[in-house]
Design goal:
By secondary structure, the protein is α/β, with parallel strands linked by helices. It is about 35% helix and about 20% strand. It has a five-stranded mixed beta sheet with strand order 3-2-1-4-7. A five-stranded mixed beta sheet has the order 10-9-8-11-12, covered by helices on one side. It binds zinc ion. The site of zinc ion (ZN) has 5 residues, from loops. The site of zinc ion has 5 residues, from loops.
Length: about 300
Protein backbone atom coordinates (compact mmCIF):
# COMPACT_ATOMS: atom_id res chain seq x y z
CA UNK A 1 0.00 0.00 0.00
CA UNK A 2 1.21 3.49 -0.91
CA UNK A 3 0.22 6.72 0.84
CA UNK A 4 -0.17 10.43 0.21
CA UNK A 5 -0.65 13.63 2.14
CA UNK A 6 -3.57 15.97 1.56
CA UNK A 7 -3.01 19.51 2.82
CA UNK A 8 -5.50 22.39 3.01
CA UNK A 9 -3.90 25.74 3.79
CA UNK A 10 -6.16 28.33 5.40
CA UNK A 11 -5.50 31.79 6.79
CA UNK A 12 -5.38 30.60 10.42
CA UNK A 13 -4.82 26.84 10.32
CA UNK A 14 -3.40 24.25 7.95
CA UNK A 15 -5.45 21.05 7.84
CA UNK A 16 -3.47 17.95 7.05
CA UNK A 17 -4.44 14.36 6.24
CA UNK A 18 -2.57 11.09 5.79
CA UNK A 19 -4.33 8.96 3.18
CA UNK A 20 -3.99 5.49 1.74
CA UNK A 21 -3.86 5.41 -2.05
CA UNK A 22 -7.40 3.96 -2.10
CA UNK A 23 -8.66 7.24 -0.58
CA UNK A 24 -9.05 6.07 3.04
CA UNK A 25 -8.17 8.84 5.52
CA UNK A 26 -5.89 7.32 8.20
CA UNK A 27 -5.15 10.36 10.28
CA UNK A 28 -5.89 14.09 10.27
CA UNK A 29 -4.50 16.97 12.29
CA UNK A 30 -3.98 20.72 12.16
CA UNK A 31 -1.08 23.12 12.55
CA UNK A 32 -1.10 26.89 12.86
CA UNK A 33 -0.63 29.01 9.73
CA UNK A 34 2.21 31.42 10.51
CA UNK A 35 1.51 34.25 8.09
CA UNK A 36 4.04 36.76 9.53
CA UNK A 37 7.17 37.70 7.51
CA UNK A 38 5.34 37.19 4.22
CA UNK A 39 4.36 33.65 5.23
CA UNK A 40 7.94 32.42 4.91
CA UNK A 41 7.42 29.68 7.56
CA UNK A 42 4.23 28.17 6.11
CA UNK A 43 5.74 25.61 3.73
CA UNK A 44 8.65 24.62 6.03
CA UNK A 45 6.12 24.11 8.89
CA UNK A 46 4.03 21.85 6.63
CA UNK A 47 7.10 19.86 5.52
CA UNK A 48 8.22 19.41 9.13
CA UNK A 49 4.77 18.23 10.21
CA UNK A 50 4.72 15.70 7.36
CA UNK A 51 8.16 14.44 8.37
CA UNK A 52 7.05 14.00 11.99
CA UNK A 53 3.95 12.09 10.89
CA UNK A 54 6.05 9.81 8.68
CA UNK A 55 8.39 8.92 11.53
CA UNK A 56 5.43 8.42 13.91
CA UNK A 57 3.96 5.90 11.44
CA UNK A 58 7.29 4.33 10.47
CA UNK A 59 6.95 5.47 6.86
CA UNK A 60 9.53 6.98 4.50
CA UNK A 61 9.20 9.10 1.36
CA UNK A 62 9.43 5.92 -0.76
CA UNK A 63 6.07 4.84 0.71
CA UNK A 64 4.42 7.97 -0.73
CA UNK A 65 3.09 8.79 -4.18
CA UNK A 66 3.17 12.49 -3.32
CA UNK A 67 1.47 15.39 -1.63
CA UNK A 68 -1.49 17.48 -2.77
CA UNK A 69 -2.27 20.92 -1.42
CA UNK A 70 -5.02 23.51 -1.70
CA UNK A 71 -4.22 27.18 -1.08
CA UNK A 72 -6.55 30.19 -0.80
CA UNK A 73 -5.42 31.92 -3.99
CA UNK A 74 -5.45 31.42 -7.74
CA UNK A 75 -2.84 28.75 -8.60
CA UNK A 76 -1.53 28.12 -12.12
CA UNK A 77 -1.18 24.62 -13.57
CA UNK A 78 2.56 24.93 -12.84
CA UNK A 79 1.83 25.37 -9.13
CA UNK A 80 2.69 29.05 -9.03
CA UNK A 81 0.86 31.63 -6.91
CA UNK A 82 1.10 35.33 -7.84
CA UNK A 83 -0.62 36.87 -4.82
CA UNK A 84 -2.63 35.82 -1.76
CA UNK A 85 -5.15 37.78 0.27
CA UNK A 86 -4.40 36.22 3.66
CA UNK A 87 -1.19 34.13 3.67
CA UNK A 88 1.34 36.92 3.16
CA UNK A 89 2.68 35.31 -0.04
CA UNK A 90 3.39 37.31 -3.15
CA UNK A 91 4.85 35.49 -6.17
CA UNK A 92 5.68 31.99 -4.98
CA UNK A 93 6.68 28.80 -6.78
CA UNK A 94 4.71 26.68 -4.33
CA UNK A 95 5.05 23.35 -6.14
CA UNK A 96 8.83 23.65 -6.57
CA UNK A 97 9.42 24.81 -3.00
CA UNK A 98 7.24 22.09 -1.45
CA UNK A 99 8.97 19.43 -3.56
CA UNK A 100 12.40 20.67 -2.46
CA UNK A 101 11.34 20.69 1.19
CA UNK A 102 9.70 17.25 1.20
CA UNK A 103 11.32 15.21 -1.56
CA UNK A 104 7.79 14.29 -2.69
CA UNK A 105 6.03 15.11 -5.94
CA UNK A 106 3.67 17.99 -5.16
CA UNK A 107 0.39 19.07 -6.80
CA UNK A 108 -1.08 22.44 -5.90
CA UNK A 109 -4.57 23.81 -6.51
CA UNK A 110 -6.92 26.59 -5.47
CA UNK A 111 -8.68 25.63 -2.21
CA UNK A 112 -12.26 25.97 -3.50
CA UNK A 113 -11.44 23.97 -6.63
CA UNK A 114 -9.69 21.33 -4.54
CA UNK A 115 -12.71 21.08 -2.19
CA UNK A 116 -14.91 20.39 -5.24
CA UNK A 117 -12.52 17.61 -6.26
CA UNK A 118 -12.75 16.25 -2.69
CA UNK A 119 -16.55 16.06 -2.84
CA UNK A 120 -16.26 14.19 -6.15
CA UNK A 121 -13.63 11.83 -4.72
CA UNK A 122 -15.22 10.77 -1.42
CA UNK A 123 -18.22 13.02 -0.76
CA UNK A 124 -21.60 14.01 -2.18
CA UNK A 125 -20.34 13.81 -5.77
CA UNK A 126 -18.79 10.35 -5.53
CA UNK A 127 -19.25 8.42 -8.76
CA UNK A 128 -19.75 11.55 -10.89
CA UNK A 129 -17.24 13.00 -13.34
CA UNK A 130 -18.79 16.37 -14.18
CA UNK A 131 -19.60 18.38 -11.10
CA UNK A 132 -19.98 21.96 -9.96
CA UNK A 133 -19.52 22.78 -6.32
CA UNK A 134 -20.76 26.06 -4.89
CA UNK A 135 -19.53 27.04 -1.43
CA UNK A 136 -21.84 29.51 0.29
CA UNK A 137 -19.80 31.02 3.11
CA UNK A 138 -18.70 34.56 3.91
CA UNK A 139 -18.25 34.78 0.15
CA UNK A 140 -19.28 32.42 -2.64
CA UNK A 141 -16.59 30.04 -3.86
CA UNK A 142 -16.74 27.41 -6.51
CA UNK A 143 -15.10 24.55 -8.28
CA UNK A 144 -15.87 23.09 -11.68
CA UNK A 145 -14.82 19.52 -12.38
CA UNK A 146 -14.93 18.36 -16.00
CA UNK A 147 -14.11 14.71 -16.75
CA UNK A 148 -12.69 14.37 -13.22
CA UNK A 149 -10.29 17.30 -13.74
CA UNK A 150 -10.38 20.73 -12.14
CA UNK A 151 -11.06 23.57 -14.56
CA UNK A 152 -8.01 25.70 -13.67
CA UNK A 153 -7.91 28.30 -16.43
CA UNK A 154 -5.00 30.43 -17.65
CA UNK A 155 -4.39 32.34 -14.41
CA UNK A 156 -5.64 29.68 -12.01
CA UNK A 157 -8.82 31.71 -11.59
CA UNK A 158 -11.27 29.26 -13.20
CA UNK A 159 -14.63 28.74 -11.46
CA UNK A 160 -14.72 32.04 -9.55
CA UNK A 161 -18.46 31.50 -9.48
CA UNK A 162 -19.03 34.14 -6.79
CA UNK A 163 -18.08 36.87 -9.23
CA UNK A 164 -20.53 36.06 -12.00
CA UNK A 165 -22.44 39.30 -12.58
CA UNK A 166 -26.12 38.75 -11.76
CA UNK A 167 -27.35 42.35 -11.38
CA UNK A 168 -26.79 45.44 -13.48
CA UNK A 169 -28.27 47.93 -11.02
CA UNK A 170 -26.41 47.22 -7.78
CA UNK A 171 -25.13 50.44 -6.16
CA UNK A 172 -22.83 48.73 -3.62
CA UNK A 173 -19.38 47.29 -4.37
CA UNK A 174 -18.46 43.61 -4.23
CA UNK A 175 -15.18 42.75 -2.45
CA UNK A 176 -13.64 42.42 -5.93
CA UNK A 177 -14.48 46.08 -6.70
CA UNK A 178 -17.22 45.39 -9.24
CA UNK A 179 -21.00 45.65 -8.81
CA UNK A 180 -23.70 42.98 -8.77
CA UNK A 181 -21.59 39.82 -8.28
CA UNK A 182 -23.41 36.63 -7.21
CA UNK A 183 -21.72 36.64 -3.80
CA UNK A 184 -23.39 39.96 -3.00
CA UNK A 185 -26.70 38.01 -2.77
CA UNK A 186 -25.90 34.32 -2.27
CA UNK A 187 -23.22 34.34 0.46
CA UNK A 188 -24.04 34.52 4.17
CA UNK A 189 -23.33 38.26 4.06
CA UNK A 190 -25.30 38.54 0.81
CA UNK A 191 -28.37 36.93 2.39
CA UNK A 192 -28.10 39.48 5.23
CA UNK A 193 -27.97 42.26 2.58
CA UNK A 194 -31.14 40.91 0.94
CA UNK A 195 -32.81 40.56 4.34
CA UNK A 196 -32.01 44.12 5.46
CA UNK A 197 -33.33 45.52 2.18
CA UNK A 198 -36.51 43.47 2.43
CA UNK A 199 -37.06 44.37 6.10
CA UNK A 200 -36.60 48.08 5.34
CA UNK A 201 -39.57 48.12 2.99
CA UNK A 202 -41.93 45.33 4.08
CA UNK A 203 -44.99 45.94 6.22
CA UNK A 204 -45.59 42.25 6.90
CA UNK A 205 -45.00 40.95 10.43
CA UNK A 206 -41.89 38.79 10.74
CA UNK A 207 -39.66 37.26 13.41
CA UNK A 208 -36.59 38.73 11.67
CA UNK A 209 -34.87 41.76 13.18
CA UNK A 210 -33.05 44.04 10.73
CA UNK A 211 -30.36 44.96 13.28
CA UNK A 212 -29.27 41.42 14.12
CA UNK A 213 -30.42 39.23 11.20
CA UNK A 214 -28.08 36.43 10.02
CA UNK A 215 -28.35 33.94 7.17
CA UNK A 216 -29.11 31.25 9.74
CA UNK A 217 -31.96 33.38 11.18
CA UNK A 218 -33.45 33.66 7.69
CA UNK A 219 -33.51 29.90 7.10
CA UNK A 220 -34.66 29.12 10.64
CA UNK A 221 -37.57 31.50 10.00
CA UNK A 222 -38.21 29.87 6.60
CA UNK A 223 -38.59 26.52 8.38
CA UNK A 224 -41.05 28.14 10.80
CA UNK A 225 -43.14 29.40 7.85
CA UNK A 226 -42.26 33.11 8.16
CA UNK A 227 -43.57 34.77 4.97
CA UNK A 228 -40.94 37.52 4.81
CA UNK A 229 -38.10 35.02 5.35
CA UNK A 230 -39.54 32.84 2.58
CA UNK A 231 -39.50 35.83 0.20
CA UNK A 232 -35.85 36.51 1.10
CA UNK A 233 -34.98 32.84 0.48
CA UNK A 234 -36.78 33.01 -2.88
CA UNK A 235 -34.77 36.06 -3.86
CA UNK A 236 -31.49 34.40 -2.82
CA UNK A 237 -32.45 31.22 -4.71
CA UNK A 238 -33.39 33.16 -7.82
CA UNK A 239 -29.98 34.82 -8.06
CA UNK A 240 -28.19 31.54 -7.45
CA UNK A 241 -30.48 29.27 -9.49
CA UNK A 242 -30.33 31.53 -12.54
CA UNK A 243 -26.52 31.80 -12.29
CA UNK A 244 -26.28 28.00 -12.12
CA UNK A 245 -28.53 27.60 -15.16
CA UNK A 246 -26.12 29.83 -17.09
CA UNK A 247 -23.15 27.79 -15.84
CA UNK A 248 -24.91 24.58 -16.86
CA UNK A 249 -25.24 25.80 -20.45
CA UNK A 250 -21.45 26.20 -20.56
CA UNK A 251 -20.33 23.11 -18.62
CA UNK A 252 -23.23 20.60 -18.79
CA UNK A 253 -22.70 19.12 -15.29
CA UNK A 254 -24.28 15.96 -13.83
CA UNK A 255 -24.55 17.36 -10.34
CA UNK A 256 -24.41 20.57 -8.30
CA UNK A 257 -22.95 20.19 -4.80
CA UNK A 258 -23.92 23.00 -2.41
CA UNK A 259 -21.60 23.48 0.56
CA UNK A 260 -20.31 26.11 2.99
CA UNK A 261 -21.80 27.48 6.21
CA UNK A 262 -25.11 28.52 4.59
CA UNK A 263 -25.69 24.90 3.47
CA UNK A 264 -26.12 23.93 7.13
CA UNK A 265 -29.71 25.13 6.61
CA UNK A 266 -30.16 21.65 5.12
CA UNK A 267 -32.36 20.20 2.39
CA UNK A 268 -34.80 23.15 2.50
CA UNK A 269 -32.11 25.24 0.81
CA UNK A 270 -32.01 23.05 -2.30
CA UNK A 271 -35.63 23.68 -3.26
CA UNK A 272 -35.09 27.45 -3.30
CA UNK A 273 -32.19 27.00 -5.74
CA UNK A 274 -33.64 24.22 -7.88
CA UNK A 275 -37.00 25.90 -8.65
CA UNK A 276 -35.57 29.05 -10.35
CA UNK A 277 -32.89 26.86 -11.95
CA UNK A 278 -35.60 24.77 -13.60
CA UNK A 279 -37.48 27.88 -14.73
CA UNK A 280 -34.42 29.16 -16.60
CA UNK A 281 -32.54 26.05 -17.66
CA UNK A 282 -31.74 24.98 -21.20
CA UNK A 283 -33.67 21.77 -22.02
CA UNK A 284 -30.55 19.59 -22.22
CA UNK A 285 -29.59 20.48 -18.63
CA UNK A 286 -32.80 19.30 -16.96
CA UNK A 287 -31.54 16.08 -15.37
CA UNK A 288 -28.85 17.71 -13.24
CA UNK A 289 -29.02 16.84 -9.53
CA UNK A 290 -28.77 19.21 -6.56
CA UNK A 291 -27.23 17.82 -3.36
CA UNK A 292 -25.69 19.12 -0.15
CA UNK A 293 -21.95 18.71 0.40
CA UNK A 294 -20.97 15.87 2.76
CA UNK A 295 -17.35 16.35 3.76
CA UNK A 296 -17.60 19.74 5.49
CA UNK A 297 -14.16 21.10 6.45
CA UNK A 298 -12.47 17.87 5.30
CA UNK A 299 -13.34 18.38 1.61
CA UNK A 300 -10.05 20.25 1.14
CA UNK A 301 -7.78 17.48 2.41
CA UNK A 302 -9.71 14.83 0.45
CA UNK A 303 -9.42 16.87 -2.73
CA UNK A 304 -5.73 17.52 -2.11
CA UNK A 305 -5.19 13.77 -1.69
CA UNK A 306 -6.98 13.17 -4.99
CA UNK A 307 -4.65 15.70 -6.66
CA UNK A 308 -1.68 13.74 -5.36
CA UNK A 309 -3.15 10.39 -6.46
CA UNK A 310 -4.22 11.45 -9.98
ZN1 LIG B 1 -17.14 40.37 -7.20
Amino acid sequence: MKYCFGVDVGGTTVKMGLFQEDGVLLDKWEIKTRTENEGVAILPDIAKSMEEKMSEKNLTTSDFVGVGMGVPAPVTKEGIVYATANLGWGYKEVKRELEELTGLEAHIGNDANVAALGEMFQGAGKGYKNLIMVTLGTGVGGGIIIDEKILVGTHGAGAEIGHICVSNDEPEHCGCGRHGCLEMYASATGIVRLAKRKLAKTEETTVLNADTVSAKDVFDAVKAGDKVAIEIAEEFGTYLGHALSNLAVVTDPEIFVIGGGVSKAGEVLLGYIEKPYKEKMFFANQLVKFVLAELGNDAGIYGAAKLALS
